[in-house]
Structure formats: C-alpha cells, structure tokens
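Hi everyone,

Forwarding the result from last night's run.
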Amino acid sequence: MSITKIIEPLALRYFHSPEFYTPLPCSEDRNYWDHLDKKMKNQLIAEGTIALRSDYPNITASDFMNFTLTGNRIDYENRYFERRHMLNKLVLAECVTHNDTFLSKIADGIWLLCEESSWVLPAHNSYVRNEAQLILPDVSRPVLDLFACETGAQLSMVKYLLQKQLDRLSPLICQRIDHEVKKRILLPYIQQHFWWMGNEEEPMCNWTPWCTQNILLTAFLPNNLLSGDQKQDILKKAAYSLDCFLKDYGEDGCCDEGAQYYRHAGLCLYACLEIMNAVTHDHFSSLYENSKIKNMAAYVYHMHVVGPCYFNFADCSPMAGSSGAREYLFGKATKQDFLMDFAAEDYFASYCAGTLLEDESQALNLYFRSQTVYMLDEILSYPRGISKASPTEAIPPKKLPPDLYYQSVGIWISKSNIFQLAVKAGSNGDSHNHNDTGSFILYKNGKPIFIDIGVETYTKKTFSPNRYDIWTMQSCYHNLPVINGKDQSAGKEYAASQISLGSTDEESWIKMDLSTAYQQIDNPYIRKIILNKEAETVTLMDASNDSVILNFITYSSPVITNTGAASNALTIGDAFVSCEGATILAVETLPITDPRLMKAWDHDLYRIRMKSDTSHFTMKVT
C-alpha cells in the first residue's frame, strides 16, 4: 500500500525542542500514593512482598542458544520475563510504602538487567527482517526488538518513579540506567535503521507502534541524555514510522492480527500519540479526529462477544484479555463513549475480582501497569453502562448492534438476541495468518459452538517457512472444506472472491466463492451464511461440484442424534444442528495439552468431518 502521511507532516512543522514527559506521580508524591485506594495498596504490597521473598531467575548463554539449537523459545523467555515482572511488582510496592523495604531488591533487579549481555530475545536476534537468528547476541551491536525496547522503557520508568530514593541508596544506580539505555536503545535508534521503523511500502505490523512507544518513553521521560536536536530527530523518526504502520490499515481500522494484538498495535499507537502530544503541548491532538484512528480505537469493542470472549482469527486467542485503562483513555481521546463504557465495565469487574493487574499485555510494561493504578479513581467513578439511567427511569431494551463488515480484512460480524456470528471473507495473507478464509465463529447465548482454535505456544517453527506444517494454521482445522483433497494455501493471492452482503428486517447474510483460496480448483465453491434474527437460526449453505470433506471445529463434544445418507442431526452444547447433503465420517477429539491453548480452552476440543454427498450442503443451527 502507498503511504499517506498524516503524522510526519505535523512533526516536521514542530520547530521547538520537545519537553519531558511526566505522565504519572512519582514515589515522592505522597499526596497521591498515600491516598491510593486501600484495596489497591494492599494488592500492590502483597505482590511486592512475594517478589521480595523470591529469587530472580538465572539466565545463561546456553539458555539463549537453545532457541537456535532446539527451537524452544519459551524456556528462555519465561526466565527473562519473570525478572521484569518481579521488578515491576517491587517498584510499585515501594511507591506505595515509601520506606525502602523493597529498595535493595529493586537495585538488584536493575543491576541484573543492566548486566544482561543483550535485551533482545533469542527469537528476534537478527539484523535483517526474516533473516536467520544469531545463536548469541553481539554485545557491540544492539538489536532493537520488541523487548529490548520494553526493557529500556521499563528501566527509564523505574528511574522516573524512584530516582530520589535510588540516589539516596547510590547515585550510581540511576547513572547505570542512563548509560545502558543510551548505549543500547537511544543511540542505536538515532543512528541505525531497523525494519520495523518503516520503509515506504514495506509492510509493518504491531512491532512498529509497540517499539516506537517504548522508544518515546525512554527518550522523553526526564533525563539529560539527549540534545534538543536529537529529541526532535526522534520525534520526526517516530512520526514517519507510525505513518508506515497506518498505511497497512484500512479506513475501517480493522486489526488483521486480532483483538489480542490490538493491545500491542492500536493501543500502542495511542500511547505514541499521547507522549507526542504531551511533549509538544498537544501539537498532534487533531489526529484523534482522524476517522481511521477513531475506527482503530473502536475495533476491540466490535470484536467482543461476551465476558472474556472475543471473535478470534489468525494467532489471536478467544481470551484476548480484559479491557481497562488504556482502552478507556483511547475512547476518551477519540470521544467514543461506548468504548469508555465498555472499558470501564471490564476495569470495574477486574477490580472487584482482584485481577486488575493480571492482564498479560500490561504485566511487562511498568508504564501501563502504573497507568492502570493511576486511573483507578476516575474509572471507578465513571458512570458505567445502565448506571447512567435515573433510578426512576425504565431502562429501554438493549438494541442489537448493526451488522459490521471490515472490508479491509474481510471480517463480517452479525448478532441477534441469541447468536453471535463472525465470518472471515478476506485472504490468507494477514499478519500472524492462519489459512482460514471463509471460516466462521458462532456463539449461542455467549457460549462457544463453532470456534477458531487459536495458536499454540510460539516456537522457532511458528515464524519460519514451515509455519503451515503446524496443525492450528491449516484450513482443515478451521470450519472449512477440503476440496479435491486440497487444503487452502497461504498468501494474499489466496482469497475469497465474489463477496456479497445482504440484509432484510429479518435476516442478514454473507456470500462468497472460496475456490480462489485453494490452488488449482477450477469450479466455484459458494458459501453463504445467514443469520435470521427473528427466527433465531443460523444457516450455512455450501455449493460445489467437486469432491468435498467438510470440517467443523466445536467447543463442546458433538452428540449425534440421527444419522443417514442425506440427513444428520447433532447436539453441540446448547445448539441443535441439522445437516443435509453430507454424511458424518468421524467426530475426533483434539487434545488440548499446549500451555498457551490451555489458557484459552478449559478442555479438549472436537472436529466433525463430513463427506459431501451432493452438490449442495446445508447446515442449520437453532
């Protein structure tokens, strides 16, 4: 896609030296920390106390090399992330208590991170995009990956929150932070080009705003590491990168990586804009009126099903994480009350459950974690949802949301009072792609019926030429047909065609030809999915003259209630499913033993395989 610049021109018109970014009260601001909500204070102290009694994990060169030697990335990453999680918990506990209880352990954590040979993850240890990773880091040439940038921002936030206390312990601690972040992060950013910084039409992904956000934090939190000209250069370079990122989004704001990655993409874009605004006296504030950015903010709301569940395609998990302070603030900045309502409800529920700080997307980032704490009073006092109505008013029935079609990615969403339906009608060239064009996800009364499995724990194979050897990436493990013995192929050229949408007062539908998502399929494969909102039925109709095996992935174990050559009936959870035009070949159990999948699914999943008997197959769900 060609790049349309909306952020860089603003940066080029800013002629002053950007100011420092002071986003949150530091530990010395006792008017804030001493009056923090008691429940939150107790939670922060409890987490810090556990970390105080724990040992920072040891990391060796062999641990780093294991990624290259075995393909395992999680063993190293678990130790790496645990160090940083511990430090975050200790820092916030010290901010609450302000009595030096946690300070020595914090100094240990700072020193430990500064002593690491590199902050890059083994899976990211290369200088050219998609190049093979080096077995060990080159300490003379830092790589700026997601988590090197995260570490730079984390240490900068630790210094910002606790500098006076750390200086009383020893001024050498903060001096060491300054030395390392300048050498490992700021100078490499200014002097070198890494692929995620953008290069005209080269495709970007969540790396761009995620890394850029942390660069901006590291650069603009109070320090004396950079000249005014260098800070201006960083502002301009960041703005260019964000334009490169935005070019890959459609005007509708759909994140092709899914709701889980929205928190590393759209929300990190918001953080970038906030920092840039703060250091330039709101010079970039007009961007919140940009329709694409407003739509990007709203995306997570539209992908939500119910409770913790989201429509998930590609590598996204159905449990994409709770919304909270960042979503609320993005909604506030873009003046979208429905997003503020949605985020405030989630935040309040997490606060009541004592899980407010457990979300993985903020666990590593001390800035996000502190922001969640800082926004507590405002969000808890925000008039959420139906509480806005007067107690004497009758609450009107909740209106069904209109159907939504994200044309840029091909995702169609339709909801009735009972069913929640999403269909993928795009291509197999998405970021974090699965071969899933034409697949669908269906919930009934907020409970999963037909599902998308998601992705297993990342390994070296996950982002390699052998990605599609992994079963969860293959179309036959989605709600899709095998046509003439063939699964779908990967790449933007393998896409649905002849897509059409329709609706009446009673029903909505989407229709497409799936044959173009497969190699060398000459005959059309027409799929139409209808949601009748009055009769509360979902109907799938497939038409093909080829040999077809149908696959359907279910959350609950299917119970076959009737079989025959032309008709099959099943019960799947709370749904009754009748089929015509195919014979059930098998109902397979898909064991869920992978740790990442076990976070999403609480038991094994199931695959129904059917052989099409005629040129027309119909499945009706009630």
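The chain has a mean pLDDT of 95.

Cheers,
N.
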